[in-house]
Write a structure and sequence with these properties.
203 residues, mainly alpha, 10 helices, globular
Length: 203
C-alpha cells in the first residue's frame, strides 16, 4: 500500500479508499452484528444514530487535537478527518444492511466524502488506480494533485486556517474551538448524505 502511494500519488484518494474498505470494513460489520445480537429489535435508524453520534464526537475531538499541531495542523486534521469519515460511512452502510467490505463501498466512499462528484467519475478513477503500472512521470505534479484531492473534505475550511492562526494569537483556544466545531459539523453533514444513500426508500 505504501509503495503504491509513493509510486502513484495522483491516485492517493482512490488507493486510500480501497485500503479503508479493506481494513475498516470487517470492523464495521462486526460492530453492526454485535449490536444486532445485543438489541435484536433495534431499528437500522437507531444504529445509524449511534454511529453518527460516536463519529461526530470523534471528529470534534480529532479536530481539536489536530489544531494543537501547530504548523502541521492542516495535515494532522486531514488524516483525522479521513480516518473518522471512512469509519462513519462504513458503519452507516452496515447499519442499513450493506456489506461494509463490499467493493461497491469504495466507490460510495469517494462520492459521499466528495472526492468525486458522482459514481461514474469514482469508478473510472478506481479503474485507473487498479491498473496503474510503473510510476508515472511528473511525480511532484501528481503529488500536488493528490494533496488537493485528498483535502476535498476540508476545502470549506482551507481558507479559514489563516484566519484561525491569526485569531488564536488574539483569543487563546480559538483555533481549537473552530476546528472542533468545523470537523464535527462536516461529519454530521456526511452522515446525512450517507443515511440518505443507504436508508431503503419506501416500498
Amino acid at each position: 500500500m505504501v509503495a503504491r502511494l509513493r509510486d502513484h500519488p495522483g491516485f492517493a484518494p482512490e488507493l486510500l479508499a480501497l485500503e479503508a474498505v479493506r481494513t475498516l470494513g470487517p470492523g464495521a460489520a462486526e460492530w453492526a452484528r454485535r449490536l444486532r445480537d445485543r438489541y435484536p429489535d433495534a431499528p437500522a435508524d437507531g444504529l445509524a444514530r449511534l454511529a453518527t453520534r460516536q463519529y461526530v464526537r470523534a471528529a470534534g475531538v480529532g479536530g481539536a487535537a489536530a489544531a494543537l499541531a501547530g504548523l502541521f495542523a492542516p495535515l494532522a486534521e486531514l488524516v483525522s478527518v479521513l480516518w473518522t469519515q471512512s469509519n462513519l460511512v462504513l458503519r452507516l452502510a452496515a447499519a442499513y444492511g450493506r456489506d461494509p467490505s463490499h467493493p461497491d463501498r469504495v466507490e460510495e466512499l469517494l462520492v459521499l466524502t466528495q472526492v468525486h462528484p458522482d459514481a461514474a467519475s469514482a469508478r473510472a478513477a478506481l479503474a485507473g488506480a487498479r491498473e496503474a503500472g510503473d510510476p508515472a512521470e511528473g511525480t511532484w505534479r501528481r503529488a500536488a494533485e493528490a494533496a488537493w484531492r485528498l483535502a476535498a473534505p476540508l476545502t470549506a475550511q482551507a481558507g479559514g486556517w489563516v484566519a484561525l492562526r491569526l485569531a488564536s494569537r488574539l483569543v487563546p483556544g480559538a483555533a481549537v474551538v473552530a476546528a472542533t466545531l468545523g470537523d464535527a459539523a462536516a461529519a454530521d453533514r456526511l452522515a446525512a448524505r450517507a443515511v440518505a444513500a443507504y436508508r431503503p426508500g419506501p416500498r
